[in-house]
Q: What sequence folds into this?
């Protein structure tokens, strides 16, 4: 496979599968992940072989060498459309840059409009020239100051459009990185709940930090009350979710004479000690929660081609790429336990695994489509009806089916045992050929 071209072979197979299964390829979800590998892989002389080396580990195993896999899947069923193996130290920025250049000609030649969907790492100023030639949907990085300004403005305007009961958005048109774009500020109830949890934890950490910060400040003596107040003000400016609640200035006199002072003893100098307490800044806390509950999606696709709701739905489909990586990195594959001697064989192995994902995702898509057509459900893990089961759960449900071979009057007969109502229902969803294998009437 490496000699033929792993990436080429998978793309050819995927193209044929998409055509046969009539898979919608309008939205192409792009992402990368790393695979940690054991063993000492010696670099190959083949210029097309990847380098198994140390890099940023998404598996949190910086002690192991790794390979990076780029994957693009369809939103319709999460079917792999292409994959590519990269050196272990390849960055997402480099991968997305090269992929964007390769996709320009492919997508422009496509008979139907297609767009690339990716996470925030796709959107950088250095990628802008290539992105301008592609139809893209991406999350705008929250590190950009403009994103904070746009979210603040949206919260101030409060002119939200409802997407559903828990999600709303505000569109705006602007020019950024030399591209005319449509940005959507998206707010959801789920994001707000996550933001509340995150900020409550941050507030608790800040309370502990404030206690430690005030301890040396309160032990210090100041020459004037103004100096003490200024020092407290400077410290309070570093607090994100708290403000000064109350403070007290305590005077410490130094007398001109030794011994116990009397009313008539002259005061030589006075120093001031500060006692302060912080309190929660409710307004800033609430503002931060709503800021954190929002994110910004950007696209250069016109509203006449793709509605705001379709843009949001398109980005949410990015979960398909992440689901594909969960499948590939399942412990059942034992990739980190394998040693296949050469980097080119690792590339071949990753291609076989991606091919397994293709078969899995197509079978799962067929099952879910059959359930939808027949308006049927099957029990999920907590025995509740679902019309979108995972194929992995279906495999688990089908366990226990056995083929028993008997000799009856010198003739071999096969019997299928272990079937029940749910298993028969699932098997019939896969069509006549499967029913024939399991000796079931297809009706």
A:
């Amino acid at each position: 496979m490496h000699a033929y071209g792993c990436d080429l072979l998978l793309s050819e197979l995927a193209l044929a599968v998409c055509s046969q299964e009539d898979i919608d390829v309008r939205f192409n979800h792009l992402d990368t992940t790393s695979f940690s590998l054991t063993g000492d892989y010696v670099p190959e002389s083949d210029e097309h072989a990847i380098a198994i080396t140390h890099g940023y580990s998404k598996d949190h195993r910086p002690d192991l060498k790794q390979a990076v896999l780029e994957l693009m899947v369809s939103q319709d069923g999460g079917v792999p459309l292409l994959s590519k193996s990269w050196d272990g130290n390849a960055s997402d920025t480099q991968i997305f840059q090269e992929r964007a250049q390769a996709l320009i000609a492919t997508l422009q030649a496509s008979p139907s409009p297609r767009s690339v969907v990716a996470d925030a790492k796709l959107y950088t100023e250095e990628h802008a020239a290539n992105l301008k030639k592609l139809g893209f949907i991406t999350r705008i990085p929250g590190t950009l100051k403009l994103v904070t300004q746009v979210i603040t403005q949206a919260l101030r305007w409060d002119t939200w459009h409802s997407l559903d009961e828990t999600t709303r958005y505000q569109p705006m048109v602007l020019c950024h990185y030399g591209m005319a774009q449509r940005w959507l500020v998206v707010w959801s109830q789920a994001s707000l709940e996550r933001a509340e949890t995150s900020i409550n934890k941050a507030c608790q950490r800040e309370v502990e930090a404030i206690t430690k910060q005030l301890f040396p400040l309160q032990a210090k003596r100041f020459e004037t009350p103004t100096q003490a107040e200024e020092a407290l003000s400077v410290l309070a400016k570093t607090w994100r979710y708290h403000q000064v609640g109350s403070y007290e200035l305590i005077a410490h006199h130094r007398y001109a004479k030794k011994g116990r002072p009397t009313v008539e003893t002259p005061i030589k100098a006075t120093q001031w000690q500060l006692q302060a307490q912080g309190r929660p800044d409710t307004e800033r806390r609430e503002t931060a929660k709503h800021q954190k509950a929002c994110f910004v999606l950007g696209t250069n696709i016109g509203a006449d081609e793709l509605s705001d709701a379709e843009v949001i739905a398109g980005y949410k489909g990015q979960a398909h790429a992440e689901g594909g990586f969960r499948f590939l990195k399942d412990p059942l594959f034992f990739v980190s336990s394998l040693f296949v001697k050469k980097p080119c064989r690792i590339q071949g192995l990753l291609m076989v695994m991606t091919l397994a994902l293709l078969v899995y995702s197509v079978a799962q898509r067929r099952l879910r489509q059959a359930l939808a057509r027949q308006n049927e459900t099957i029990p999920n893990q907590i025995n509740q009806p679902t019309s979108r089961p995972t194929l992995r759960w279906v495999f688990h449900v089908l366990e226990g089916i056995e083929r028993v071979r008997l000799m009856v009057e010198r003739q071999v007969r096969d019997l299928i045992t272990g079937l029940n109502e749910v298993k028969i229902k699932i098997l019939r969803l896969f069509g006549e050929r499967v029913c024939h294998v399991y000796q079931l009437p297809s009706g």
Q: What stands out?
A: The mean pLDDT is 85. The first strand starts at residue 27 and ends at 37. Residues 217 and 274 are 7 Å apart (CA to CA). The two ends are 42 Å apart (CA to CA).
